[in-house]
Design goal:
This protein is mainly alpha-helical. It is built from 4 helices and 3 strands. A 3-stranded antiparallel sheet has the order 1-3-2. The protein is rod-shaped.
């Protein structure tokens, strides 16, 4: 059955026909499970493909536009995930840098007493010679 639907879609494109999809088929065919009101709000705000008015009270969407919209949403999701991973990595690097700075500062303080050419620091207090 699915193979037949794909064949009809290909034939429709070859002959210049547009394959339309009505709202009730958006969920089972495309996985778009918005309420009718929310879907219309998305269309009105141009965040989803605009419907094609077929007659009084009858609208449908171009299936190719729906597929393109879904592909764009997927690309948007993937781009956002890459950005979030990069930002997390940068944050981790910045935190690591702060820790490294703190360690460097404390080791520099310790090392400041033992510079090259200086006599070694006494390990115990000098004995009095009385």
């Amino acid at each position: 059955m699915r193979r037949e639907a794909l064949r009809r879609n290909v034939m429709a494109r070859v002959h210049g026909h547009v394959k339309l999809i009505v709202f009730n088929r958006l969920s089972p065919d495309k996985g778009i499970e918005y309420s009718r009101d929310h879907w219309r709000r998305l269309c009105k705000s141009r965040k989803a493909p605009a419907p094609i008015e077929l007659g009084t009270g009858r609208i449908a969407w171009d299936e190719e536009e729906i597929d393109s919209w879904l592909a764009a949403k997927k690309q948007e999701r993937d781009t956002k995930a890459e950005f979030d991973r990069a930002r997390e990595h940068d944050t981790r690097d910045a935190a690591m840098t702060e820790r490294e700075r703190a360690l460097d500062a404390s080791s520099n303080r310790r090392m400041s007493f033992a510079r090259e050419g200086d006599p070694p620091a006494p390990t115990s207090p000098p004995k009095s010679t009385e």
